[in-house]
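Suppose you are handed a protein chain with no further information: no name, no annotation, nothing but its sequence. What can you learn? This example shows the usual starting point.
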Amino acid sequence: MSLALSAIGLSAFLACLLISALAVYARVLDLPNERSAHKAPTPRAAGLGLIAGLGAGALVASLFPITAGSLGAILLVTGLFAALGLLDDLFDLSERLKFALFVALCLAMVWAAGPVMRLGVTLDWAIDLPTWLAVAGAGLFIFTLVNATNFMDGSDAMLMAVMGPAAAGLGVAGLVAGELSTSVIGVALTGACSAFLVFNRPPAKAFAGDVGALGVGAAYAGAALAMAGQGFSGSLWLAPMFVLVFLADVLLTLLRRAVNGRLKLTAHSEHAYQRLIRAGWSHGSMALIYGGLTLAIVVTGLVAAQGPDGTVPIVFGIWVMILMGFYGAAGRLAPGEV
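A reasonable first move is to predict its three-dimensional structure. Written in structure tokens, the prediction is:
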């Protein structure tokens, strides 16, 4: 298995490196606007390399005797998410059309990965969900996570700094839970994200764009859903925990906007990292902080998964409180930013 996973990760790294370089050469530019954290036009379709990395990893996985039943369906829907992102990168689709297609793709991913039918804190303390609620909950999870990934791709290396270690943790968690489709996607994402850092590290030569952000978010969310509830009760909590720095920033920002009477589902620049950058913090420092927090979360989450039943949700709750404190501190470090 170690040989197979190594080959999957390496193939994803090389494919992403090649296709991202070609996309940078094609120069589909992201032009700065009032919400942008960058100042100069920067290629944004290089995120195609991330999708190519996932595809290459899946092809290599097919050469090994790996039983990963939902892998193909998850990657198919991931490709559709990426296609939606690419169309938006190229043509700026209308908000209504994007929303309708997005909801449809979220439901398609629930079909691909399967809904979570049992919401558990421990093996004995769990609630069996009716099918309609399980599907709705899984769809909302996909919707939230993919949007959070896209919202947070606004600073050099930010997406890779978080999704790289999160994907690596997901790969390990999939092995623990016995869900190999999750492991394959996690390892392939890790390889692809590592390669994309060559172009996306500060100062960024390229951005993932919607094609890369939606694709990475969808692949991670689908793999997470496939693992949820498999093997042990903590598997439900691990994948959301690994990307908690993104989820916390997005959800707390929405809450902050609601409290201040600005809760509109339109683009804005009020995330904690955006406010800190405007206050003088560098892109590199933001990537290091968010990536460092993610690495710490992944390590503690995987350690908790080896502990007594019910430890993972407790660690999840502790990290929620820590990140709430971080968000509050960011507000004090960027006074007057809205």
